[in-house]
Amino acid sequence: MKNKNYPEQDNRSKGFIILFMTVAAGILIGAVYCTRYNAANPWIHQYFLPEYSGNTVYEVFRNTFVSLAAFTVTAFLIGLSAFGQPVGVLMLLYRGFGIGIAAASAYLSKGLHGIPTVFILILPECTAAAIISVLAVRELMRLSKSMFMFIISDSYHTDKSFKLYCLEFIVLIIASLLVAVLATVLNYIFSGLR
């Protein structure tokens, strides 16, 4: 017996792949940018770079959480717009840009000695941040598309309620909090790699 949901599941998988490819494109752009320009600005490195994430445990936690939560809240608000989908793509490029900057900066400043920094301090945080970002943008795109379809056809094209949309973003904020705790613990334990 065939699964009737298979085409829908296949489309979801393709959607995730496209969103992660957008992040990957941002990573590539960020890595290339880092080879020519300074990455010391927090708007550029997004606090993924350990040496710029803070000097105390509190600063590392605060900077990491604020960066992740600000992205998630922005995605939430943009999802309320009928024209939010292109902005969501740009947000993923931006998130990938920060990840690319962080990894490339570690290699450029430390050479091969930057490998432990990338694998222990940057990669876990950036992987979690990329997943949270993709999930936030996916939900942004769903609601934005639904609102756009309502504008052009006067019919609501989603079975998701606004309450569920809010709940999903609350879960993503809690996940951001956990990632900030993880990043803080790793930066504390492996402070010699910073």
Could you describe the 3D structure shown?
With 194 residues, the protein is mainly α. It has six helices and no strands. It has helices at residues 6-34, 42-45, 57-78, 85-110, 114-153, 162-189. The radius of gyration is 18 Å and the shape is elongated.
Task: Assign a percent range to the helix content.
Answer: over 70%
Order of helices and strands: HHHHHH
The main pleated sheet reads as:
none
Helix count from the secondary structure assignment: 6
Question: What is the compact description of this entry?
Answer:
The chain is mostly helical and 194 residues long. Helix content is 77%, strand content 0%. The mean pLDDT is 89.
Record keyword descriptors for this entry.
mainly alpha, single chain, 0% strand, 194 residues
Helices and strands in order, then pairings?
Layout: H1 6-34, H2 42-45, H3 57-78, H4 85-110, H5 114-153, H6 162-189
Helix pairs in contact: 1-4, 1-5, 3-5, 3-6, 4-5, 5-6
